[in-house]
Structure formats: C-alpha cells, structure tokens
Amino acid sequence: MTHFSSVIPLEIIPSDRAAGAEIRGVNLLEPLSPDVQEQIVQALANYGAIFFRGQSLNEEQQLTFTRAFGDTMGHPLAKAEHMSFGEGSQSDVYYLKDEPDLTYIGKNKLKGAVMWHTDLQYMPEPQVYSLLYGIEIPSKGGDTLFSNLVAAYEALDESLKQRIEHLQCVNWILRTMPPVVHPLVRIHPVSGRKALYVSPTCSRSIVDMPPGQSKSLLRYLMRHVTLPRFVWRHVWQAGDLLMWDNRHTLHCRTAFDLCERRMMRRTQTAGEPVIPA
After folding, report:
1. Is 50 exposed, middle or buried (0-12, 13-18, 19+ CB in 10 A)?
2. What is the C-alpha separation between 264 and 260, in angstroms, rounded?
3. What is the rounded CA–CA span in Å between residue 116 and residue 84?
4. pLDDT for 6
5. Residue 135: which of 33, 203, 237, 42 has the closest Cα?
C-alpha cells in the first residue's frame, strides 16, 4: 500500500518483501526541509533501505544530500591497507568500478558477487547510512540484496532471544585492524526495536563461549538472517540513488557478466556507538 505524508507530499511505496521502499516526491537537488529529512530517517528505520529513481546527481550534489543525515567520511580500509577505492574529487566520495574483462568476451563468465555484510561492523563506531548512486548498470545481475535484521530477530523463538540478548561478539576483518566487540543484539535508536548484529563477513566468535558452541550459534544465526523471507532485492537502473541503514540491514551483491561494466558512486555517513539490548 502507498502511504502519503500528512506534512509534505512525500510518497513512500514499500516493497512486498521484509525490507525496501521507493521514495517519490523529493527533489534531491534542493535542500531538504526538516520535515522531509525526518520522514526519510523514519522510512529508513521502517524499511531498512530506500531508493530514489531517475536521479541526475554529481559528486557534490550527492555529498550535499548525504550530509543532511550526518557527517560524511571516507573508507577506513583505504587508509589501513593503502587500497584504492576509486576516489572522487573529494575524499568522502569514492567509486565502485568493475571494468569489462575483454579476455572473457563470449564466455559469459560471472563475477562481482559480494558476501553478506553490514558496513564497517569491524569499527568501534560502525557506519550509520550508506548511499550508492547507479552510473553504469550491467544488463543482468549486480543486484543489491538486503536482509531485515529487525524482522530476523523478532522471528526468533523466545528462548533463543533470551539466550543471546546480552551476548557479545568479536568482529574482525583485517590483520592490520584490531578486532572489536559489539553486542549480538542491538537497539535501533530511531525505532527502539531490537535487531540482530551478525554477519558472515565480520562476526568471528562469541565472547566467553566455548569455540564449538560459538561457531554453531553464529552459523545458525547467519543462516537465519539470510532466509528468503527476510530479504529484498534491489534491481538497479541507471540514475538510482539507494540508501540504507546499517543498523537495520545486511546487504550483499549478486554476480554479473565479466564482459559488462558496473560503476557506482558511494558516499556514507560517520559511525556511532552500538546500543546494546
């Protein structure tokens, strides 16, 4: 069902899945009013990920929109590993570029799949919002999938909720960066709802739990959060601006043909402390 704001003509069209909504009626090239900004934040808290179709944004315009929701930041892995993320003209903008590999023309090879993760879970203050703008889109694949971590938590049986509610998890990604400990269940500061905070990419072990039990519990939770009933797929179009709340969702990317180009521009807001359940 389509919902209309009682304050401004903001149209929110939820997907038919556990996450995701399209937002219409917002001119992203103009400064956001407090009412519009508040409703976008609420939509992110409700649906985890939102998108705006048919946009035409340059770097500065995307940064301006991003800054309406918090301070922006670059990618910490670029500094820690001296990696290039296709930086834009400003350090807070970078590009995800997948160039065609001519050696595979005619072979229909697939690549580009990215595992389930939530952005910067390996940092002491993980990232809040991520924004991705579609510049060049392959004809098939390269979709972004989102899992609703709030819905996944709420679907657990009560005994398991009680078992995990106050557990902590070690999160780690690179040897050059120290591991961090975050609660396994967190509170979303906007909705007040509880969400699982676990991912196949970063969640390594449960604090003070025997290794076998820790591995078993994490494996179960990782399978649970990626069940199809919690997942929404965003099929990209050029000019899409996709925005998601990392406190609410996991995401991953599907594979696409090596012979095609995929290019996205990314911006992100700074992190904040995780609120334990």
Report:
1. buried
2. 14
3. 22
4. 46
5. 237
What is the spatial distance between Cα 54 and Cα 36, in angstroms, rounded to a whole number?
A: 19
Burial class (CB in 10 A: 0-12, 13-18, 19+), 261: middle
Q: What is the pLDDT of residues 18-39, one digit of tens each?
A: 999 999 999 999 999 999 999 9
Q: Are 144 and 253 in contact (CB under 8 A)?
A: yes
Extract the tokens encoding 113: 């799949």
What type of residue sits at position 42? Answer: Q
Q: What is the dihedral of CA 98, 104, 105, 106, to 10 degrees?
A: -130
Burial class (CB in 10 A: 0-12, 13-18, 19+), 79: exposed
Q: pLDDT, tens digit, for every residue of 190-225?
A: 999 999 999 999 999 999 999 999 999 999 999 999
Contact 164, 195 (CB under 8 A): no
Structure token pair of residue 127? 């990232």
